[in-house]
Specification:
heterodimer, A: 131 residues, alpha/beta, Rossmann fold, 5-stranded parallel sheet, 4 helices, 5 strands, globular, B: 583 residues, alpha+beta, Beta-Lactamase, Helix Hairpins, Heat Shock Protein 90, 3 domains, 5-stranded mixed sheet, 13 helices
C-alpha cells in the first residue's frame, strides 16, 4: 500500500485526473470536492499527506489547514493555488503548510514535494509519538 | 430696448464654463471691465463735482468785482450829476432874471462856475417865451428859440431837468442841465447849462475799472451816453438789449451780438433816466480756468489710461495664473486617471490570469495523464503512433508552460510586497544591474554613463524588485539604441543613469539618445501586452515595472522625443509606505 493522500479541490476535472496519475504511480489517493468533506475525510483514517486547494466553496483551504493543524499538528499539508502562493488577505499561510504550489502544477515537482512531505510527516510521528 | 441692452451686457459678462482660451478671454474682459468701471466711475464723478463747484465759485468771484465797480461808479456819478444840478439850481435861486439877463453878470457867473467846476460848456437864459435872451459860451446861440421844445416843457413842469446826451446845435455830445424859476414878481425863466460828457467819462475812470471792464451810461432808449470801450462812442446805439430798470445793482450774464459772453452789472442812477452798465467779458475771466481745465483733463485722461493699462496687465497676470493652475489641476487629474486606469487594467489582468490558471491546470494534468497512460503501456498503440502521440502531448505541455509563464508574470503586477525589505544603497543596485548588461551594451556599441554622487542616503526597499525595474528600463534603452546601424560621424550612443536626493526620497533618471517614442507609444507605454518589439517582447516589461515602482511607493514618468531619445524618471521614497499600496 502506497502513501495515503487526501486531495481536496473543487475543480473536479483537475483533482480526478491528478488522483488517477497518482494511483498509476502506486499512491493511494482519496478525493473530496470541498473543505468540509476534507475535514471529515481526514478524521477516521489519517492520510499521510493532505493536498488542499486554497480556494474552495464552503470552507477555504487555509481554514481547513488551520483546523487540521489544531487536530493533527504533525500532518503535512501541501497547498495549491491559482494565485502565486498568496491569499486574498495578503498573508501567506505557508508557515503552517509544508509547501505552497501554484497551478498549473509541474507534475515532477509535485511528486517530489509529496515525497518530502511524507518523509517529514513520518519523522514527526516517530519523534512526537503520534497516537 | 432695455432687453436688448440687458442681452448685450449679459453676453459681455458671460463666462463660458468649459476650460478653453475663450473662457479666459471672457474672464479677463469681465474682470478688466469691472475693475476699470469701479476705479473710473468715482474719479469721473469727483471730477464732475469739482468742475461744477469750481465754476460756481469762479462765477461768484467774477461777479463781485463787476458788482463793486458798478456800485462805486453809481455812487460817483450820482454825486457828480447831483452836484451839477444843485449848482445850476443854486445859481438860478441866487440871481434874478434881471441880474442874469445882464450880459456882464451872466459872464461873471459863468466864468466863476467854470473856474470852480470843470466841464461846463455854456450857459443860457431862456425867457418865458422860449427865447434865449442871454447866452455865454463858445457858440453863437443868443436868440435861439427853444419854444415848444420837450426839454423846456419838462423843465417848466418839474423845475429841474437833466437831458440825455445830445449833439444839439453844438455838434458835440453834451448834457443839458436846466432849472426853471418862477419869481415872486411873476417872471418865469429857465437857466440852461450845457456840460461836457467827457467829464462823466473821467469820473468813471477815477473809480478805476480794470482794462478789460467797460463802464458806461445808457439812456432808456439804449443810446450810449458816454463812450464805451466795447460798443463805440457816445450817442451810438448800444447793441445789447437793456436789462430792466432797477435802482438795485443787479448782475446777470448776457451774450452780445458778437457772441461774447458777458457779465453785466446794471442799475439806474437816482434822479435820472440813465442806466449805468459795468460789463466784463467772461471769456477773459475764464481763461486761467480753461488752462487749468485743460491740465486737469489731461491728468484725468492720463489717470484713466493708466487705470485701464494697469487693470489690463493685472488681470492678464491674474488670469494667466488662474489658467496655469487650472491646467495643472487638469494635468493632475489626467495623471490620476491614468494611474487608475493602469490599476484597473492590472487588476483585471491578474484576475483573468488567475481564472485562466485553473483550466490550464486541468489541460496540463489531462495531458500528463495521457502521457502516463501511453508510456506505462496501459493503452495499446504501436510504436509509431505512440511516439507521435507522446510528441503531441509534450507539445500541449510545453504550450501550457508558456501560458503559465504569461499568467504568472501578469500576476506579478498585482503581487503584494513580501517581507523582504532591506536597507540598501541604490548605487550598488544600479552598478550591479549594469554589470548584467555590460556585455550586451558593448556588443551594440553603447556606452554606459553613470552619475552617482557619493553620500546618497540609504534606502529601505526590495533589492530583487529594484533590480528587475532597472533591468527592464536599461534593457529597453539598449533596444531603443540598437534600432538602427551606427553611421559614421554619429554621436556616441549612451545610456546615462543619474541619481540624486529629492526631498524624502531619491530621483533616478535613465536617459538614452536612442530612437525615442511617439506620443502614441508614450500614452500606452505602461499598458500590458503593448509592445513595439513585434514578436520579441511580451509587452509586459513596463507594465510590471510600473507595478513594482508603485508598490515600492514611488512614481515613474517617461519623457521622450521621437528620434532624440527618452528619459525615464523614477522617484523612490527612502522608506516604503507601511500599508500595502494599491497599485
Amino acid at each position: 500500500m502506497g502513501l495515503r493522500i487526501l486531495l481536496a479541490d473543487d475543480e473536479k476535472e483537475f483533482v480526478d485526473t491528478l488522483a488517477e496519475r497518482l494511483s498509476l504511480r502506486g499512491y493511494a489517493p482519496y478525493v473530496v470536492y470541498d473543505g468540509i468533506s476534507a475535514l471529515q475525510a481526514a478524521t477516521p483514517e489519517m492520510p499521510d499527506v493532505v493536498v488542499l486547494d486554497l480556494f474552495m466553496p464552503g470552507l477555504p483551504g487555509d481554514e481547513v489547514l488551520r483546523r487540521l493543524k489544531v487536530l493533527y499538528p504533525d500532518l503535512p499539508v501541501i497547498l495549491l493555488t491559482g494565485h502565486e502562493a498568496v491569499d486574498d488577505n495578503g498573508t501567506c499561510p505557508v508557515s503552517q503548510a509544508f509547501a505552497c504550489l501554484t497551478k498549473p502544477l509541474s507534475f515532477n515537482v509535485f511528486l517530489e514535494t509529496l515525497q518530502a512531505a511524507a518523509r517529514e510527516g513520518k519523522e514527526c510521528a516517530e519523534e512526537g509519538g503520534r497516537p | 430696448m432695455f432687453a436688448t441692452i440687458k442681452n448685450y451686457f449679459g453676453h459681455l459678462l458671460e463666462v463660458p464654463e468649459a476650460v478653453s482660451p475663450a473662457r479666459y478671454r471672457s474672464l479677463r474682459r469681465l474682470m478688466t471691465v469691472l475693475m476699470v468701471a469701479v476705479s473710473v466711475t468715482p474719479l469721473l464723478l469727483l471730477s464732475a463735482i469739482s468742475h461744477v463747484q469750481y465754476m460756481r465759485t469762479l462765477e461768484r468771484e467774477m461777479e463781485s468785482p463787476v458788482y463793486a465797480l458798478a456800485r462805486k461808479s453809481q455812487a460817483a456819478l450820482e454825486l457828480y450829476l447831483g452836484e451839477r444840478v444843485s449848482t445850476v439850481s443854486f445859481l438860478a435861486h441866487a440871481y434874478t432874471f434881471k441880474d442874469l439877463a445882464e450880459e456882464r453878470t451872466l459872464n461873471r457867473v459863468f466864468l466863476a462856475l467854470k473856474s470852480e467846476y470843470q466841464g461846463f460848456v455854456d450857459m443860457g437864459l431862456v425867457n418865458a417865451d422860449g427865447r434865449q435872451v442871454a447866452y455865454v459860451g463858445p457858440y453863437k446861440l443868443e436868440g435861439a428859440d427853444y419854444a415848444g421844445k420837450a426839454w423846456l416843457r419838462d423843465t417848466e413842469i418839474k423845475g429841474r431837468y437833466l437831458s440825455n446826451a445830445i449833439l444839439g446845435y453844438r455838434g458835440y455830445p453834451h448834457l443839458v442841465v436846466a432849472v426853471h424859476r418862477l419869481e415872486e414878481n411873476g417872471v418865469s425863466w429857465t437857466l440852461r447849462v450845457a456840460t461836457d460828457t467827457l467829464r462823466i467819462q473821467q469820473v468813471v475812470s477815477t473809480v478805476g475799472p480794470e482794462h478789460d471792464t467797460d463802464v458806461f451810461l445808457v439812456d432808456t432808449a439804449g443810446v450810449l451816453q458816454t463812450d464805451s470801450n466795447l460798443y463805440g462812442k457816445a450817442l451810438e446805439k448800444l447793441p445789447l438789449s437793456l436789462p430792466p430798470a432797477s435802482h438795485e445793482t443787479v448782475v446777470r450774464r448776457m451774450t452780445d451780438p458778437d457772441g461774447r459772453q458777458l457779465m453785466v452789472a446794471s442799475c439806474t442812477l437816482a434822479g435820472t433816466d440813465f442806466m449805468l452798465m459795468a460789463i466784463k467779458p467772461t471769456a477773459d475771466a475764464f481763461r486761467p480756468w480753461l488752462a487749468l481745465r485743460t491740465e486737469l483733463l489731461l491728468v484725468l485722461c492720463g489717470g484713466i489710461a493708466l487705470i485701464v493699462i494697469v487693470s489690463n496687465l493685472l488681470m492678464q497676470q491674474l488670469v494667466n495664473r488662474l489658467q496655469a493652475s487650472d491646467e495643472r489641476r487638469v494635468a493632475v487629474f489626467a495623471q490620476m486617471e491614468h494611474n487608475q486606469k493602469l490599476s484597473s487594467i492590472g487588476r483585471l489582468a491578474a484576475g483573468v490570469a488567475h481564472e485562466v490558471n485553473n483550466p490550464l491546470a486541468v489541460i496540463y494534468e489531462k495531458a500528463g495523464l495521457a502521457q502516463d497512460l501511453l508510456s506505462m503501456g496501459k493503452v495499446c498503440g504501436d510504436g509509431k503512433d505512440k511516439d507521435r502521440l507522446l510528441a503531441l502531448l509534450e507539445g500541449i505541455e510545453s504550450t501550457v508552460e508558456r501560458a503559465r509563464g504569461i499568467t504568472h508574470r501578469l500576476l506579478g503586477f498585482a503581487r503584494r510586497m513580501e517581507a523582504n525589505r532591506q536597507t540598501l544603497h541604490i548605487e550598488e543596485v544600479i552598478t550591479e544591474t549594469l554589470g548584467f548588461l555590460e556585455r550586451e551594451a558593448k556588443n551594440r556599441g553603447v556606452k554606459f554613463e553613470t552619475e552617482l554622487p557619493p553620500g546618497l542616503p540609504e534606502l529601505v526597499s526590495d533589492r530583487g524588485q529594484l533590480q528587475q525595474v532597472f533591468l527592464n528600463i536599461v534593457g529597453n534603452a539598449l533596444d531603443a539604441l540598437a534600432g538602427t546601424d551606427k553611421k559614421p560621424g554619429e554621436e556616441q550612443r549612451f545610456v546615462k543613469i543619474s541619481c540624486q536626493g529629492q526631498g524624502k526620497g531619491l530621483l533616478v533618471k535613465v536617459q538614452d539618445n536612442g530612437k525615442g517614442m511617439s506620443p502614441d507609444v508614450l500614452r500606452h507605454i505602461f499598458e500590458p501586452f503593448y509592445s513595439t518589439k513585434k514578436d520579441k517582447g511580451t509587452g509586459l516589461g513596463m507594465f510590471i515595472t510600473y507595478g513594482i515602482v508603485r508598490r515600492l511607493g514611488g512614481e515613474i514618468t517617461v519623457e521622450s522625443t521621437e528620434g532624440r531619445g527618452s528619459t525615464i524618471s523614477i522617484t523612490l521614497p527612502l522608506t516604503p509606505p507601511d500599508v500595502a499600496v494599491e497599485v
